[in-house]
């Protein structure tokens, strides 16, 4: 071990995809002779692996960067890096390098260019490359000795009108089936037994005619694998084949996370979700018919532009009717580049907060009731 190893601390924000990316970053940095610290105190370099999905997530990162008051070398990495690009340097002069999610494999090389504190050669931004090299998935480093997240597809091409993900993560790309299976088998040989397959819309997975359900079957059959889960599903692409796989594959988690977003057909259309409330309900009915002991979770956005009281009530009514075991409820946040951001953010902040609180309370009651009934 060299005594002059650069010390790095990684702060992670956002979805499971980012949890996995932070691991990937840690894996490649360690492979290249960097030391990844458990906390920020001893680190010279802080990597913020960031999320842009709501403004609040970004604000938190800017305020944390500010809290270091120039005492560390700061890297802005992940979705915010792609969102801000070189504007990040204008926003905060303490940001030393900006690296988008498709370029994280360049981090060892970028860090090597950093001179001792205060002698930064220049600020770097690397956000150009759309495809990640496959090798980054094979460092063999996972935070948890028993469980691994495995990316099956990157990016998203659905362009839900409120969502920044297609802009910061690029279009949908699928990893090759063999590469996914190789990664999982290597992790099993390391002693990992539980796996979660990740993608923004797993149901649309396709590699040379090989689809998501077929992938589930092959992964389920791997020797040494004990538990398997996946997310996120999209109501426009999930269907009977996936539900039957959930019923039949003994290692597969029976929980289905199926984001509804809104119960109003007009709002769903404005959101560009590709389904209406009736189709969503029909899908759930199928799931419940096929998977007897399943459980269901969802995501809801309140206060989408032009959402009326009546439409908000339609969302509440549908939540009651369906009875989700759990729901993640978000206040609409306008995001740069998105279609919805061109609309007036018409629901006042206070009203959004009111609707948010109302659905949180409603869902809490439903979740508790279902828990009591052991459902
Ligand atoms: N691909 C997944 C997850 C996307 S982000 C999916 O389609 O479900 C996770 C959740 O964040 C979304 O389901 C949505 O409910 C919420 N979200 C995304 N953009 C948002 C925005 N601009 N404002 C508020 N919530 C948002
Ligand atoms: Fe965003 Fe929609 Fe893609 Fe999910 S499916 S990541 S909400 S654009
Ligand atoms: Fe995930 Fe946030 Fe990026 S939800 S894909 S980390 S914008």
Index terms:
375 residues, alpha/beta, Rossmann fold, pyruvate-formate lyase- activating enzyme, six-stranded parallel β-sheet, three-stranded parallel β-sheet, 13 helices, 16 strands, 37% helix, globular, binds S-adenosyl-L-homocysteine, binds iron/sulfur cluster, binds FE3-S4 cluster
Your description of this structure?
- The protein has helices at residues 16-31, 55-67, 79-84, 87-91, 107-112, 165-169, 177-189, 212-220, 240-248, 265-270, 277-290, 309-322, 349-372, and strands at 7-12, 35-36, 45-50, 73-78, 95-99, 124-126, 147-151, 153-154, 173-174, 194-198, 206-207, 210-211, 227-231, 255-257, 295-302, 326-331.
- It has 2 domains: 3-126, Rossmann fold (3-Layer(aba) Sandwich); 156-373, pyruvate-formate lyase- activating enzyme (Alpha-Beta Horseshoe).
- Helix 9 (240-248) runs parallel beside helix 11 and helix 12 (309-322) runs parallel beside helix 13.
- By secondary structure, it is of the alpha/beta class.
- The structure holds S-adenosyl-L-homocysteine, iron/sulfur cluster and FE3-S4 cluster.
- FE3-S4 cluster binds at residues 14-15, 17-18, 51-53, 79, 164-165, 168-169.
Task: Give a brief outline of the structure.
By secondary structure, this protein is α/β, with parallel strands linked by helices. It is built from 13 helices and 16 strands. Helices cover 37% and strands 18% of the residues.
